[in-house]
Amino acid sequence: MHTRESCAALDRDDPLAGLRQEFMLPEGVIYLDGNSLGPLPRAALERGRQVLVEQWGAGLIRSWNSAGWFELPTRLGDKLARLLGAGPGEVVLTDTISLNVFKALAAAVRLRPGRRVIVSERDTFPTDLYMVQGMIEFLQQGYELRLTDEDLPLERALDEDAAVLLLSHVNYRTGALHDMAEVTALAHRRGALAIWDLAHSAGAVPVDLRAAGADFAVGCTYKYLNGGPGSPAFIWVAGRHQDQARQPLSGWWGHQAPFAMAPDYQPAPGVRRFLCGTQPVLALAVAECGLDAALRADMRLVRAKSLALSDLFIDLVERRCAGHPLTLVTPRDPAARGSHVSFCHPEGYAVIQALIARGVIGDYREPRLMRFGLTPLYLRYTDVWDAVEALRDLLDNRGWDRPEHRQRGAVT
Amino acid sequence: MHTRESCAALDRDDPLAGLRQEFMLPEGVIYLDGNSLGPLPRAALERGRQVLVEQWGAGLIRSWNSAGWFELPTRLGDKLARLLGAGPGEVVLTDTISLNVFKALAAAVRLRPGRRVIVSERDTFPTDLYMVQGMIEFLQQGYELRLTDEDLPLERALDEDAAVLLLSHVNYRTGALHDMAEVTALAHRRGALAIWDLAHSAGAVPVDLRAAGADFAVGCTYKYLNGGPGSPAFIWVAGRHQDQARQPLSGWWGHQAPFAMAPDYQPAPGVRRFLCGTQPVLALAVAECGLDAALRADMRLVRAKSLALSDLFIDLVERRCAGHPLTLVTPRDPAARGSHVSFCHPEGYAVIQALIARGVIGDYREPRLMRFGLTPLYLRYTDVWDAVEALRDLLDNRGWDRPEHRQRGAVT
Asked: For this structure, is A125 an active site residue?
């Protein structure tokens, strides 16, 4: 049976405890939303100043060369590759997940001519589906989006017409984790290519794209990789596809010789052809600080602590908030989940708002889900204890039942 | 006949002189490359710190609402609209020019069904052409890119098959300026829509998109708008097209109700449907400082000073560097040029490198072009004098004729 003291003991023995000091965490806040936006690495402040004052201010246009701005997408991509089981020259940091989904998708369908079905999940993060829909409607070549759900399991959805399987590695609502190697192998047996969206796994769950035999992957850097609000996304392309893969967002940064200014597009070799236009240097440069922090942690220790924190959270909520209408939505089996945990509550929205007002920051996802990120780089076991105590107090005293907690903001 | 003293007198009488102090300009540098990357507004340093420390660091995920992050693309778009002759709800700051070209193009061709030709210029900035090529190759619906050049004038290129005309308002190499209203009217008479790339005119040349009757426009904020390296681009959609226009990069930020997380895409009303994925907040927020500086200047005064600086530059180069093989490539007629001036020199690359080494920063464009931006917000008439004197000294003494000046960097 956990107590606050036993949690404090776990903190004392935590081999990752030292990493917490790399982040600025506001006083009086327990941050359980690093699965949505990671906190500020302390190094980012100095990096931001350096890019603004030294590189932009003093260096001006010269910094494209002297400060290596032009190489940021590939240099940071090579760093990130180490967290994804990928090799150098396989990843670029660029654009947004949505756009990178489009690129991967467009490249993938052309590698599977004749097949016209794109398979995905009904409850995946919707922007992935929107990008499929945008492409299908634009192409008008008879493509079809087929969504798996309770009535249509993946096994059946992947038939001989399936060109591409597009899946979230970890589901944004439930935290359910796919076995990437197993699902990719299934897609391949059916003749389809697999695109993985790592938004909710990169930096939180061990990912081995090469070992899993995946074809394409995309993801973001602002969640578990602590890159900053809206920091650039990434795309990975398996080495075996790089020379044939073509994507239609063929801007000058993806050109073989961008500064030759030739009127005809020639794709750069390798993953660089998945770049398009000029990238936001400040956002990219600052994102490196988060990447560096993640690279200092042993991913096996990160995974172990992530599951330990999640187990603790689930156990404490279920025991200490027993009697309240809370239902665990996340798989109970540690092997089947990512690094966040969701509970359903009929008044989930108001409860989360009330929790946030008390300094315990989680978030809300439709319908009725309270979502909590258990992020090993900066969370303590005692934070989990304290967060659940705040939740218990709120539920026991109906502290969420106030008009101001029901009011909706633009971003929920 | 100009002298340094007459230039100093012009500086004393310059009604825009006070704006120079809003920018950080390094000692010993004359910056004639603001047409490629504008300098750092002083306010950007504090804005960057505020976004990093207060909004991201202390506010964390809450800042999506409390700091207005989610509204940055539309709020800044409304500000920028005032410089473009556009109205509120018509502009968003987002993504890159290349991507916005793709969106505008994809929307435009669907508004002109049956027509299969996209007309552009052979010597426009190539990424615009690359995006057309990417779209055409992807669609496989018989679209064709038709490029105007000496052999094919616009008059002839725009025939009854022309769906879209895609032009740079100001040419990136020569500085030649199109008459937007006249060319748009020609396109419309032929039944085509007009997309304008304002990369080299927004913030430097008066732009009146509504008065010109244009259909779509795109541009960047890192040149004359001083938004920072790779700061987000913009897209404008004429009010009359907004409800019918559909673009395939249909990410969640362009959804009618992004947080409903519905599996089906429904485009937001207005220009917001041209948003796609999560935007780089830090880069966007900092870009506002450059916008604010531009909005403090009267655009008629900006244009007048731009032309006065350019006239002075052309006159001084031609008189004081007479005898050297320099050829003006930019139109001599002020009404026919933007805000940069290019000279051809057989050793243009080495000359520019040598000039940069002396603190006079221009840039180079293939083939043999030396390009100089005359930016009214922070350049003085005496800067132009001093820059030309440096050039004269370099040419008179073959100061460019050294191996280190011929060496090519990644970005030229």
From this structure: yes
Tell me B38's DSSP state: P
At A408 the pLDDT is 81
Per-residue pLDDT of chain A (412 residues; tens, 9 = 90+): 899 999 999 999 999 999 999 999 999 999 999 999 999 999 999 999 999 999 999 999 999 999 999 999 999 999 999 999 999 999 999 999 999 999 999 999 999 999 999 999 999 999 999 999 999 999 999 999 999 999 999 999 999 999 999 999 999 999 999 999 999 999 999 999 999 999 999 999 999 999 999 999 999 999 999 999 999 999 999 999 999 999 999 999 999 999 999 999 999 999 999 999 999 999 999 999 999 999 999 999 999 999 999 999 999 999 999 999 999 999 999 999 999 999 999 999 999 999 999 999 999 998 899 999 999 999 999 999 999 999 999 999 999 999 999 988 655 4
Chain A positions in Cβ-Cβ contact with residue B44 (cut-off 8 Å): 52, 56
Question: Rounded CA gap, B64 and B61, in Å?
Answer: 6
Sign of the dihedral defined by the CA atoms of residues B358, B359, B362, B364, in that order:
positive
Contacts of B189 (CB under 8 A, 6+ apart): none
Please name the helix (run of DSSP H) or strand (run of DSSP E) that holds residue B1, with its range, or none.
none
Nearest CA in chain B to A97: B277
pTM of the model: 0.97
A360 neighbourhood in chain B, CB within 8 Å: none
Surface of A (93-112) touching B: CB under 8 A: 95-99, 102, 106
List phi, psi (to 5°) of B216: -140, 155
Q: Is B145 on the interface with A (CB under 8 A)?
A: no
Name the A residues in 43-62 with CB < 8 Å from any B CB.
Answer: 44-45, 48-49, 51-53, 55-58, 60-62
Residue contact B126–A261, C-beta within 8 A: yes
Instruction: Tell the burial category of B341 from Cβ atoms under 10 Å away from its Cβ (0-12, 13-18, 19+).
Output: buried
**Catalytic annotation present for A224:** no
In this prediction, the residues of chain B whose per-residue pLDDT falls under 70 are 409-412
Active site residue A222: yes
pLDDT of residue A304: 98
When CB atoms are compared, the residue of A33, A61, A248 closest to B36 is: A61
Nearest to B69 among A229, A255, A412 (CB): A229
Residue B63: its chain A contacts at CB < 8 A?
229
Minimum distance, in Å, between the CA of residue B398 and any CA atom of chain A = 23
Identify all chain B residues contacting A250, using CB atoms and an 8 Å cutoff. 130-131, 133-134
Q: Are A259 and B29 in contact (CB < 8 Å)?
A: no
Cβ within 8 Å of A, B 287-346:
none
Task: Look up the ipTM and state it.
Answer: 0.97
Nearest residue in chain B measured CA to CA from A226 = B56
B69 contact A CB<8A? yes
Q: Per the CB < 8 Å rule, is A31 touching B60?
A: yes
For B126-181, the three-class secondary structure string (H helix, E strand, C coil) is HHHHHHHHHHHHHHCCCCEEEEECCCCCHHHHCCCCEEEEEEECECCCCCEECCHH
| pLDDT tens-digit readout, A54-86 | 999 999 999 999 999 999 999 999 999 999 999
What residues of chain B lie within 8 A of the CB of A225, using their CB?
none
